[in-house]
Design goal:
By secondary structure, this protein is an all-alpha fold. It has 15 helices and two strands. The protein has two domains: 242 residues, no CATH class; 114 residues. 66% of the residues lie in helices and 1% in strands. Strands 1-2 form a two-stranded antiparallel sheet. It starts with 23 loop residues before the first helix and ends with a helix. Keywords: Membrane, Transmembrane, Transmembrane helix.
Amino acid sequence: MPHHTAETPTSNATFTVPNTLSGPKFTHATASTTPSVISVAGALGESVHVTRSNRHRRKKKIEYSGLPQLSFPAQRISTRNVPYLQHPTLKNLAFALAKIDRYSLIYSKTVLEDAKATRTPSPGMNCAVELAAVEAAIAQITNGIEGLTHFTESYLRSLEFLKSWKLKRSKFIAHWRSLPVKEVARNENLLKLIAKDLSQLSKALVEVAQYKMLEQAYKDALNDRWNVIIEIFDSFSLLTGIQIPVPTWIEAAAQLTEMQLITSSQVLDLDCTSTLMWPTFLEIVLLALPTFALAYQHSSHKPETIQDADFWFQVQASSMTFLGLLIMGIPMWKERMLSGYVWYWTWGAMSISGACSFSAPVIYCYAPIEWASLGIVAGALQAFVTL
């Protein structure tokens, strides 16, 4: 396994090791930290007091090299505006990668907080600036994971997160060597979570390769992160004897090689918007026009009353259409999931669809009943809004 070293200058500064594998600092690293991370950190909380007690008895500090610079281009991680990742497989890849990167960012945040509190950063390093950058990156990643923003292509290419993983590797290994084996074993649950997320990342990577969208820049960024993470698992296994199954980059690369044998003609991109939109459009035309013609032919060509059973069938269909609009519209309004011109024409289409839903029963009573089929238009517009 290749050994990665920090690329930035180091110093001989020393500071007391923060137990960021567990305890209060880890659990409140960010307000958006997921429950799984919080529960694992809480379960490991007992080791904080034991660790501090052991350090106090030994009356010595563990020597560390200086902190690497951890500035992150937070504005390039996720965004509400275009351009952002459009293809579903790339979105899944960024989502899986973000869940893993968030572990290292939360750890980096805690290390920086400790360095700031003990005034032991590297020479020329502004902990406040670095801490703000890491916090911004955590916020951007969390927003992307929760669907509030969209991940960008530059995030998949970025090598900045390798710094935080190298920091985590060096601190983890040095910290574990200072602890009894039983205390190191307490971190098994946290590593199992990371291993599970790595498995999801491996699956997402294969899907991207299947659609011939895996660029070399993506592979390079993932390869570097992956190898550093595996070194953390190897060190844990060496110190405790506990083997945690985790997919390696070699295994993932072997699956990618198999995917390269699939030709583009063998892959039908059913997730592409245009692929779904035009067949849907043709179906609407082929169904709506003939049925409207038949309805017109058999229509009485006069208004009906609410005593007619067909009126209540019309009310039922319109209500279902309007309910579908609400189910789509409320989340979009709340989270501003759309942006720019897409936002305006989508809401325009939904407004027309809602108007048709309300007007169809009224038209049934005051105009020739065939025109009540405007409810069909409402349903068609709703389908296009969904696409």
